Amino acid sequence: MTTTIRHLLAGAAALTLLAGAAGAQSITIAIGSEPSTLDPQLRDDGGERQVNDNIYETLMARTPEGELEPGLATEARQIDETTWEFDLREGVTFHNGEPFDADAVVASVERIIDPANNSEQMAYFGTIDGAEKVDDLTVRITTTGPDPILPSRMYWMKMVPPGHATDGDIGAEPVGTGPYRFGDWSRGESITLERNPDYWGEEPEVETATYRFVGEAGTRLSGLMAGEFDIITNLLPEFTQTAPKFAAVDGLETSVFVLGTDNEVVSNPKVREALNLAIDREAMVQALFQGYASIAQGHHVNPAAFGFNADLESYPYDPERARALIEEAGATGATIDVVGESGRWLKDREQIEAVAGYWAETGLVPNVQIQEFSQYLDSLMGDGPRPDSIFIANSNELLDADREASFIYHMDGAAASNSDAEMATMIDEARVTTDPEARQDLYDQVFAKGHDLNYTVPLFNLQDIYGMSERMEWQPRTDAKLLIKEMGVTE
Amino acid sequence: MAAFLLRRLIQGGLVVLGVTFTVFVVTRIFGNPVDLMLPLSASPEQRAAFASELGLDRPLPVQFVQFAGELLRFDFGESTWQRRPAMEVVLERLPNSLLLIGAGLGLAIVLSLPAGILAAQRPGGILDRIVTGLSLVGLSMPQFWVGLLLIVLFAVTIPLLPTSGMGSPAHLVLPAVTLALVPFARLTLLVRSQMMEELNKPYIRTALARGLPHRRVLVGHALRNALIPFLTLAGWELVLALAGYTVVVETVFAWPGMGLVAIQALQRGDLFLVQAIVYVVAVLIVLVNILLDLVFKLVDPRIGLG
Question: Where do the Solute-binding protein family domain residues begin and end (chain A) (predicted)?
């Protein structure tokens, strides 16, 4: 009897496998949140990108390691300080048959910078003045000032078909040039994409991909283990042993404390040095992230980004020296405000509390303030007094150090807490320097100075972890894009 | 009857208006919605432009007058998060919520009546102990944990049901059971104690002594009297569920209901969507209450529709 049942079960399992093989070209991806719209030019939303990155394409692309490479443009060159020219790929059409040409690029640029559209992505495109057609396959993009990172910006701007963008419902029915075209969106449940048979590039392996929206990490993992999903995003470090397969890659986010260098206690360079030396980052990587985080190398710039200073090293852990420095500075017993939030970034509260614990051992008295998010934003970017220290996980989608430098190191930056005019001048200069070597040199100086004067307390470059089913073959990308064309299925 | 309905509908309308206006004021006074709607990297100019586009930079009374005008035309504005009419988002999710609540509470009501009656037959007996024990377990386990436990048991270890999402009747089973657990426990304990009380009353003993069949006494007399508190509590459970207490179940099972949308709308400072949700929920709760009054009257004709 038992044998019969076992045979039956084996037969059933074999059948399931066969069925699986027949549908091997279909995969299911569970992401954390449903896109609010599939208009590719409106939101700054990870869920939307995870879907649209497969439907739409950009003038510039990146290799999985983050190197800029040609996309819909075959070449980019600078004409003068404020003008870039792009040669466009020939014979590319949108999924609805509209041609991809200079007119489409001009329309895409103009649509995104149109104030009436109020695009959240203007944070990336604020320097763009306009676009003009040179001929059908050549287009020029002008900027309001010199902008060396325009090609990086164009890696972020999705090209839309002018006709459909004006007359169609582009928010519900996306139409791009990409390797996958839109299939179906059942709101609240799933989005399905199909392989684009007319794709200009190499034909991808996966035929159809279904996205499911599962907010709860435990449920995503259960779905993976039950065989319902092939890829799940944001696998928690503690679940890596449970998942059938997983892959981790350095992500875009770096956590850091910005120090209020004009504040009473923290203005003393010895105190700031002590704050950096007091933290056992290695222990935190193991305890909080099970090893799935890298220690930031003395500054909070992403190692894959242009401008990263490869000569800097992470601060060592030296609690005795930290205590001695605090004593020398006469700051023993002084209070230091530690401001942060909770729930926005992976293990944010845990990081804040652990760091405050290390700081307490130096003789300082940390005053941890976990704030409600809009109050926190006000502390981070408002006009009020700068906090002694404030936590942020900085994300760099453009993979260029201008973001870190302008936002946190430049004295006029929204989240900056210093008044270093010399550093600000260097950052301003780097922003308009078009020679890559000279620009790298400026950033090297900026970040070396920030490191030596301890303007910030850099913590970790967090890794993105994906759970995968046994049959999935995929290496995640540094830029966190989920590109189905890079995925494969064994069987 | 007609006069009763008219009066209750007018009262209900006032309640809905009061709730809607309260939400309007509260969402605008506490916190800055624009901060929540725009990404961290948005510039102060972008923030100001967005605030002015939404009319949030105008004085509160001016905003209020406009809001009241739009409300009269049933125009709830556009969800800033989804960029489509707020009411469209709500009406898309409402059926999913009603399905989940219907299945969950239906299950709780249908099972709690026999469970409670059986338990009351022999207080302290083995059946009573099982039912009471189960109810206490149901009450004390966090819904979140029960949900994940059921997924691991019935979708991963024994792959009978899907882990999450909706689309087939099978998808409804685990979320409905999880949602049913707490109301089932509360209702069962109530039926049990009510029945025990009724069964000890002299009229029951008299009826039994006169030789009336046991079942008729139980259902026709004791249960009928126990039904009023039962319906009151069931109504309360329904109101709770409608008010968004399903959000934990929706999160665990990725069920696209209203509770989840309400939380997301709040997190993203989507005032217009929050207002539309609150309005619809308030209307539903008022209707449920009117319906309950009518059912009470049906069960116990002595209750006046006053």
Answer: 67-379
